[in-house]
Amino acid sequence: MIPRHQKLLFGILLFASLIMGLTLWQLRERAHQRLIAGQDSAPTSAPEVAPAVEATLLVANDSDNSLLAQARSLPLPADPGARARAVLGKLLDLYAAPDATHPVPGGGPSVLQVFLLPAPQSGAVKSTEAPSDDQQQTGPQLAVVNLTGSFAANHPSGIQTETLTVLSICGTLHANLPRVTEVRFLVDGKPRATLAGHADLTGTYLAAEAVPTEGAHP
Description:
The protein has 218 residues and is of the alpha+beta class. The protein has a domain at 52-120 and 134-210. The chain contains 5 helices and 6 strands. It has helices at 4-41, 80-96, 133-138, 149-154, 159-176, and strands at residues 52-61, 66-75, 111-118, 141-147, 180-187, 205-206. Helix 2 packs antiparallel against helix 5 (159-176). It is rod-shaped. The model is unreliable at 123-135 (pLDDT under 50).
């Protein structure tokens, strides 16, 4: 005869085993459902890549102090501000290359942001009203180029080399975004007197005047 207390203990253990088995089965089912849900939510296609379009870069050449237009096929975003930053980044990448015709360290990351704003109308009475949507979408624009402090600090000093950098940036912006008629510069988000001791960064540059005929001196 099996003692009563052993029967009771056996019943308790059997009941606990059933409960544990049911719990483990439920946990397994939940984990399986989470796995399926994770697979369903995973992306089924590759991220969209910006299409390659033809861009024009005004590349400086120190050997004859000229700006030369170069056509490049680049993946450019549709947003104008992002597009402006991308083309300037490619321009500065050329200057940072070992075989650069206008050697300047820093490369594309030296362009922090490019802000596109409605250009102020010279000679017009200033208005306190914000520009209309039509003016913002079709009117001339002022590009504000924000460069890094390290780019300015490491830029070769000299009136000609600094001027070539500034004019090539202005010309490249106008060549790819014709609505950009004026360009201003910031360094680390703040006004700066000169690029590296010579080229003035306090004023506004007329972008169209920085686009010379092919191979011409600025």
